[in-house]
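Task: complex structure prediction.
Instruction: return structure tokens for all chains below.
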Amino acid sequence: MYNLGAERHLVLFSIGRGHDGPARVGLLKLNEHDVPTPALISPMDGGLAHFYATYNHESFAPEKPILLSLGSAFMWDFESSLDNTEDMMVLLPSFPGLSDISDSSKDAVLQFQLEIIERLSDTLDPSQLVARIPATSNPNALSDVVSKISEKGVTSAAITFDSTSGMNDYNSIFMRAHLPRSWSAFAFGRITPSVIPLLYYVGFDFFDIGYGWASASQNIRLWSYEQERITNDATSRFCGCTACNQSIQLNELDNTKANATILQHNILVYRTVMSECLHHSKRGSLRQLVESFTHASPSLNALLRTIDQGLYDYLEEFTPTSGSGTQSLIGPESYHAPSIRRFREYLKDRYIPPSHKSIILLLPCSARKPYSDSKSHRRFISTIESALGSLRSRVAETILTSPLGVIPRELERIYPAANYDIPVTGDWDDEEVSIGADALVAHLNKFDEACVVVAHVQGGYKEIVASAQERIRQSVIYTLDEQSPGSRDGLQSLRDTLTDLKEILQLENIDSRLFADTLRATADFQFGPDAGMNLIPDSAKLSGKLYRMVVVRDGGVQTCAFIASNGLLSLTIDGGRKIDSLERYWVRFAGEDIQGGSLFAIGVKEADERIRPGDEVVILNNSGKLLAVGRSEMSGLEMCEHTRGRAVTIRHKVGE
Amino acid sequence: MSSLDEIFNPLLSLIQKASFDARGKSIAKRKTRNPNLPSSKWVSDSRIGSDMGKSLAIVLNTIGCSHARSDIGGCTMCSYLLDGSNVIISSDQLQNQFDEAFRSLSDKDGPLAVKLYTSGSFLDSEEVPDEARQHILTRIADDDRIREVIIESRPEYVTESRMNELRSMLADRHIELGIGIESMNDKIRTICINKGFSTDDFIHAVDVAKAERIGVRAYVLLKPPFLTERDALTDAKRTINEVVEIGATTVSINPINIQKDTLVEFLWNRGVYRPPWLWSIVDLLLETRVSVSDDINIICDPVAAGKSRGSHNCGVCDGEIIQGIKKFSMNQDIRILSSLSCQCKETWKHVLSHEDVTLQTHRDLIIDY
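Output:
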């Protein structure tokens, strides 16, 4: 059945390619059959392929459950032989409610999991076992117990949810975030359809839909966001699903038939929501789906925002640094979404203003992305050029926006700056103003005190500048009274201001730095501060078009290219050498040479912890020699932890 | 590998501490009542032998159960001793209490039964001094209407001499000792309930009583904490069959009701304990009535039934089911139980199987999101 000491196990869980936050696709190989994840798991009689049952309580034949619960610990017969369980995951016994009574009881309940694993190791393969982790567990004790459990070969955990407001569900998610990524994770309990996207997003693989049964038994029909009580005295909602369509008026059916119909409908709703999650995850828009689902209830919304604050590091680690398509940022829950907060932090930590900037021009954002393509910005640019000519490069064109905060023109094509979309009403809430002001202050502090800030903004944008003003060291000139920035009067005022400043500051001529500034800022953003000057020294030659591609040649050799469609730099091997010399974004392969177009996680010995899915990385061999450059599919920590899955998709190899 | 004892024993001290902590100052803060009056008394219709009669239940006001007052915290679900007194009640005062309660029977015809409760053990002379006990028994003995006497006690107070005294004073009346065995599963009784006595203690008490033809009314607890609903049902069924084999003469099913300042209340407040469903009681009665011989009555009088602190269903069928259980306790006829139905039975069935997988307490209301 299994081989202790050999690598072969009865059960294997492998994680597939692609990331959208911690959510993943996977494959649970159970002895004879495979279960792709994410997967719904249900009580026995739902007609679903993947169901659970309890040992000695339910008879199941010919179909077998994929998960067998051993029930609760006080009733568990320690002499059980557990025959015929090779094709199942086995859910360990524990004590309902005991973890809640004291700190010592929390630890005792966890300790019991270890004890029972020890006892069951003679009867069952540890890879079949699913440990129960109470939401109320002590986080400090958890990591110790988890490593002991891992050592015994157990790689799966079950955590319960009760979908009530308060900290309970946050604690459950906290537990999952502190379990190894390579473990499969089961979510049990009171799980409504509306919470499934969030649970999937935070890294669960299996979702218990038993709540569909509980609600059907009470004549409650579930919808994605809400519930409908079917009663005799009200017309029930229209539903075209295959279950309801057969019964036009549910409340006219007899109870048994109504319950059966409602149950089938509820199952279909779970399946629909699960499918939505998968679809969005593949498109890279799972976070958006999760955000929109949180409008199902205030407590669900609060839960997401609490997770964003408390588990930012966990979420951010698995959030890709590149993406395509529009990312709608609609509510306050978007302000601290991982990709958004990370942008603000990268900008603060990695952006270095070029020394030749003397004027910082604050501009409003535009709906059209990148901003330069919009009518308003084309007018701004044309105004700048008519006032300053080639001195345009002395102006740091800086766009104010919410919730990204501050976006230098150089970074207007990068993710998520080029992808986001927000509702525009002219009003900004206090949090937006505060985020914008903080970002602006941090940004302006990097510029010389002698620089002048020209604020060509109105409305909420102006509020941001005003709110930040006393923390800004530079002097600020407002170009507008009541005029709008894009109006003739407004633009005239801008032109006049810039013309005056050219005189006052005695700006010296400079050739266009547009390409260099853009590519360096991009390099710093992608690879950390100073990567820009390293990759694109003064001697480098840049050619191409910013709206398509700009190629960098240094010493006659191409090192990288700026790709307008994603606003990122793509490295050649020579470019890779430069990044390697900075000792960042590196992955160490455990061998001499790589065959094929991919580096798999099993071959990764070490990796820079900075690496995120979607990052440009360099691959070194075990002696430190550069082998290839490519795009990462995982985070740096993941590649080291996982033993299966693709770590890097190689673009160029040395010698090719 | 640790032995089972090594695994489970530490849990006992955790639970004892939690039970003790849950009581807090409740024992010390018991209200001072008139020590010459019982804590409560009530008269109800009762099946006495094969006749219908009346029974007087008296809760004497004493210092209360020694186990609950101990520093190992007492039983995790019981705070009946809060009906008792903080100060030692004298023998004279107890006699007055009894006399006062006894007057409720002055206008009643026989047959009658008297049930003597103390929120502890009637046979514990620290609670009920010898003199008071003898006074009470004498007054009962002098009353021909009284055919049945039920006395509650922990097994440690069931001694040969006490049994001897009871039999000699009460002549050939039917006497039963109500003993809270709760569960025949040692782990459950010792750890989940913290009962503080072994099955041997119980068996010994049954034997000692039997020697004087004194019966034992075994109290079986439905749904100790730290079990799922189905666990509790399974355990109660096994317990009932076993206590009957041991020699219990009546089975009294006691569904949990949430009492103040108990560990069970603590768990209930946190949403990790729910009192048993009425359906569980019905299922238990139906099944054990068939498996247990007819000469042993199986009774159940759920406290706070239909309320959130007591055994309840959906709210719609509770009244009818509670009536059914009461009637069954009187006449032992299963037909009244097997005819009960409600849509919520489907929910109950789901709860039975789902809780065994999730180990999560099912809540009653369907949530908003």
